[in-house]
Each structure stands twice: as C-alpha cells, then as structure tokens.
Amino acid sequence: MVRAAPLKESIGYALRRAQGAVYGTLNDALARISLRPLEFTLLLMVSENPGASQSGVCEALGIQKANCVPTMSELERRGLIIRRKSASDARSYELHITNKGK
C-alpha cells in the first residue's frame, strides 16, 4: 500500500493540485472564445495599459520578449490588438486593444 500522508500535509502539493484544477477550468472557458491563457493575459494587460510598449508588457508579466511577441503578432493578425510605432522611440511599438479585442 502506498502512503500519501506526507503529500496530504504538504502545502506545496495542495497548491499544485488546486492550480491544476483551476487552470483546466480556465483553459476550457477560454477555448470557447478561441483564446489561450497567455493571449487572454496579454489582452487584459493591453486593455488596462493602452499605449504600453511590447517590452513593458513582457517585463510586467515576467515573460521574455522572444516568447511574448509571437503571441502579440497572432493577436494582431486576429484583429484583437493593434501595434503602432511609438512616436517617441522608433524601435518600440505601442499596443492598443481593438473593439473586437474588448
């Protein structure tokens, strides 16, 4: 017989199990509107921070830009966000949510 008692007393294990259950429910809900969790997170960040730079959003989320920018490109392709060249920094893009993205 396998004893699970040490796991039942571990807060880390309980949190991991709870996170898995919540994440599964979130994935199912977002799939109904054709979004993945990262896409939803980026839409929320852009909505709450109009004009923010791609780098700023990635930094705020603790995500490497190389991992985040392709998803932003997909959101733009789908018409959910727009990226505009920054007036103050030609190397930077400002992010804005579209009506469809809202």
Description:
This protein has a two-stranded antiparallel ribbon with strand order 1-2. The N and C termini lie far apart (53 Å). Helix content is 57%, strand content 10%. It has five helices and two strands, in the order αααααββ. The longest helix is centred in the first third of the chain and has 21 residues, at 11-31. The protein has helices at 5-8, 11-31, 37-48, 54-61, 65-77, and strands spanning 81-85, 93-97. It is elongated. It is mainly alpha-helical and 102 residues long. A hairpin with a 7-residue loop joins β1 and β2.
Q: What portion of residues is helical?
A: 55-70%
Question: Which class of secondary structure composition applies to the elements?
Answer: mainly alpha
Which stretches of 5+ consecutive residues score pLDDT under 50? none
Distinct helical segment count: 5
Q: Find the count of extended strands (DSSP E, 2+ residues).
A: 2
Sequence of secondary-structure elements? HHHHHEE
What is the gist of this entry?
This protein is mainly α and 102 residues long.
Topology:
Layout: H1 5-8, H2 11-31, H3 37-48, H4 54-61, H5 65-77, E1 81-85, E2 93-97
Antiparallel strand pairs: 1-2
Helix pairs in contact: 3-5, 4-5
Record keyword descriptors for this entry.
mainly alpha; two-stranded antiparallel sheet; 57% helix; elongated
